Amino acid sequence: MGSATHNASTGVVTITKQFVFTGQAIVKAICPMTSGTVGHGVMLTRYLPAAGQLPDSFNDGGSLLVTLTCSVARPA
User: What is the pTM of this model?
Assistant: First the structure.
């Protein structure tokens, strides 16, 4: 699971997770979920990196740091 922080004065929420790969992996999308258990939870958003933004694949021992920042506000 990643870590989350919330700045109450600005309403900014930051979620950070570092993935360390134990074999070759191809990452096509980044989809933060409300649960760290596979097959559970709700997808918060889906980010599809443009071609060239990520390597073609990650090798054993490679890592990817994902940081999601969003603003939270009360409805008007």
Answer: 0.76
